[in-house]
Design a protein that fits this description.
The chain is of the alpha+beta class. It contains 7 helices and 17 strands. This is F-box domain.
Length: about 300
Amino acid sequence: MGHKQSVDSRGKGRKNPGSSSMVQKHSGGAIISGPSLFDNLPEDCISNIISFTSPRDACVAASVSKTFESAVNSDSVWDKFLPSDYSSLVPPSRVFSSKKELYFAICDNPVLVEDGGKSFWLEKENGKKCFMLSPKKSMWITWVSTPQYWRWISIPEARFEEVPELLNVCWFEVRGGMNTKDLSPGTRYSAYIVFKTKNGCPNLGDVPAEATVGLVGQESSQRHIYFVGPTDQRRDRETRDVTRPTKRKDGWMEAELGQFFNESGCDVVDTSILEIKNPNWKRGLIIQGIEFRPTKSLFYI
């Protein structure tokens, strides 16, 4: 039986103090130590091997030894984790000291692309591409150009220069879509509407809205979503299959509209949210955009 590397709660291999040797656990339970066999490999060879893993795995591998840490930090590794078209998505005015620094900058600080029509960033764990659609430039909202129904506002925490605030409508309909060639191929994506509510979003917040997501020409997934949710417990039990919104780290709310699989990047994905059954006038919703990001696996560690 071979040896297993011991990994602590932070996902890092434990090292003997003052050396690059690894603390390893034998299959029989005995703890032994010794130099890592991989340390004998040339650094560029280690870099090449790591580039076939994932950004998350690379960060774990950096804890193995100083040799591994140096190999992980090389541009050749992080260039593989960046999308092939990253240079066209990042403003040339942003200068970085390494590809690793560039990678994490895109993950942590989304950039506006397509003349402000979309916000782009990378999923930190796997480098998959994510986008948010601008309501003004990449979405379609019924009556959004009619001042008595909607108004455009600027708020500091929004990614886009202006976002729409719902003043009063009886017909609520929001749509958005994009070409899947801009997304990562071979990836399952989830679509979300990102929003804030005011005063409980009267006549819309506690009413299930119909949401659809799908590739054009294929059957769309369908579900119902809440922007707030019912306060009546009896009614809440009757509608327990309706998706409730969740609060994000950035302070906005989001509700999942559905999922789709981007097989080859040669399709168009469409999303819609519709509520026309409630005849009362609806108000109190601020929409930041529709977001596409990789679906989290239930088995992801």
